[in-house]
Design brief:
single chain; 497 residues; alpha/beta; Aldehyde Dehydrogenase, Chain A, domain 1; Aldehyde Dehydrogenase, Chain A, domain 2; seven-stranded mixed sheet; six-stranded mixed sheet
Length: 497
């Protein structure tokens, strides 16, 4: 029921059994353990504001134990000596295990972060696909033989980076985890995963399933807890070789500073304020529908949200009419209902942040074309919101809101659209809508963003690298780029004389 309370009774037996098992523990060296401090924290259902579980609150001592377990596993012959074909079979087995438990994982994801169940199922299916993609890589991680003199053999090897600390966000916990864990394992690394404190459930369950799939103890460890304690300890730990982080730009800057003390490798996927440019010759209906999905998907809590919509003056009013009509399909409702298109925001903190931007937009002179209000009752539900008459220097157009809010900005020329689109500290994604294919490629080339879509939005494939320009981070996930990120390149010189 789109306007009812989230239906907890709809949970399957597997999800119920997991939730009924008491406080969720850390996974260290293949064992489920409480935090050494004995502390736990509450896990909240954002659709009801009720506690659904408790999780162990790990800190520096637990992180240290997990890192030591990961280091031991890295040096074990059973892991380090695994052949490429064996590693491929393991990754395929993980994918099969994920698919076997797809409904359980989707239900836990929905319950914990408010993602509509239909979207959660699609995301878990993508998790399996990501592992299948990386299953093809262990047999293709090549070194090279370099030209040299007759008395020398010079070649390169690609070897695992080592122990990898991976910090994932709350908006797509298991999807983000797969982007990091799959390439790390394909390359022979070991992992300490730190999920967001708002959404620990699927990471904990996934860690258990990895053991069932045959991942050796200690290869993947899961430490739940807070960023200031568990996250900070992981970044600063001297025996962690790499940090992969997805989250806010503000936290990303702190991670870079903390990691500098041990000069560990860092990759960052941070915030965004994506320009979505609609030219006068665009297919209005298709552009409006995709743009609405682009800022309403996961209640706008995605780093590539189409939150800045630049529309040519000739179609400005008509496009806003189409966009608001498309956005009304995203009615906030019970995320466990298969018909729901938009669930709640993830937390009280996020709810207050987004609703404050409603006030800021109005105060700065933007016009509310749709929404800018909340759904009454329990849960962190807000309405899809479209602001018109927005200028590029308003806060709603400059700052990442991370909610279902779009700012529609007028432009007159191609050059102006490019200039305004690039006028941001971020550079994660962008889109161009036009029937002129030359213009589409020309504008895509000019936009400073790691991913640019032409006549589409939100299309991501494990084959293609993903990451940002400017303050949207550095390094890339997915594709071959992840293989390079999770390996060290070693040169070997052998004297033959």
């Amino acid at each position: 029921m789109a306007d009812g309370n989230p239906n907890i009774t709809a949970l399957g037996d597997a999800a119920r059994s997991f939730l009924a098992g008491g406080a969720k523990q850390l996974l260290i060296d293949g064992k489920l353990l409480p935090a050494r401090s004995g502390h736990t924290f509450e896990v909240i259902n954002p659709a009801t504001e009720e506690k659904i579980a408790a999780a162990a609150s790990g800190d520096a001592a637990d992180v240290d134990a997990a890192v030591k377990a990961a280091r031991r596993a890295l040096e074990q012959k059973s892991w380090r000596g695994m052949t490429p074909h064996e590693r491929t079979r393991l990754l395929l087995n993980i994918a099969d295990t994920v698919e076997k438990h797809l409904e359980e994982l989707a239900q836990l994801e929905t319950l914990n972060n408010g993602c509509p169940i239909s979207f959660a199922r699609a995301q878990i299916a993508d998790v399996a696909q990501t592992f299948r993609y990386y299953a093809g890589w262990p047999t293709k991680i090549y070194g090279e033989t370099n030209p040299s003199g007759p008395d020398t053999l010079n070649y390169t090897l690609r070897e695992p980076v080592g122990v990898c600390g991976q910090i994932i966000p709350w908006n797509g916990p298991l999807s983000s985890a797969s982007w990091k864990i799959a390439p790390a394992l394909a390359c022979g690394n070991t992992v300490v995963l730190k999920p967001a404190e708002q959404t620990p459930l699927t990471a904990i369950r996934f860690g258990q399933l990895l053991l069932e799939a045959g991942v050796p103890p200690g290869v993947v460890n899961v430490v739940t807890g807070f960023g200031e304690t568990a996250g900070a300890a992981l970044v600063a730990h001297g025996d962690v070789d790499k940090i992969a982080f997805t989250g806010s730009t503000e936290v990303g800057k702190k991670i870079v500073a903390a990691a500098a003390g041990t000069v560990k490798r860092v990759t960052l996927e941070l915030g965004g304020k994506s320009p979505n440019i609609i030219f006068g010759d665009a297919d209005l209906g298709r552009a409006a529908n995709s743009s609405a999905a682009g800022f309403c998907f996961l209640a706008g809590q995605i780093c590539v949200a189409s939150s800045r919509v630049f529309v040519h003056s000739s179609i400005y009013d008509a496009f806003i009419e189409n966009l608001t009509a498309a956005a009304t399909a995203f009615v906030p409702g019970d995320p466990m209902d298969a018909g729901t298109m938009m669930g709640p925001l993830v937390s009280r903190e996020q709810y207050e942040r987004v609703t404050n931007y409603f006030k800021l937009g109005k105060a700065d002179g933007a016009k509310v074309a749709l929404g800018a209000n909340v759904r009454p009752g329990k849960g962190y539900f807000v309405q899809p919101t479209v602001f018109s008459n927005v200028s590029n220097d308003m806060r709603i157009a400059k700052e990442e809101i991370f909610g279902p809010v779009a700012s529609v900005i007028r432009f007159d020329t191609e050059e102006e659209a490019i200039r305004l689109g690039n006028q941001t500290d971020y550079g994660l994604a962008a889109a161009v809508w036009t029937r002129d294919i030359s213009r589409g490629h020309r504008v895509a080339h000019a936009l400073r963003a790691g991913t640019v879509w032409i006549n589409t939005y939100l299309q991501i494939d494990a084959i293609s690298p993903f990451g940002g320009f400017k303050q949207s981070g550095y390094g890339r996930e997915l594709g071959r780029a992840s293989i390079e990120s999770y390996t060290e390149l070693k040169s070997v010189y052998a004297h033959l004389g």
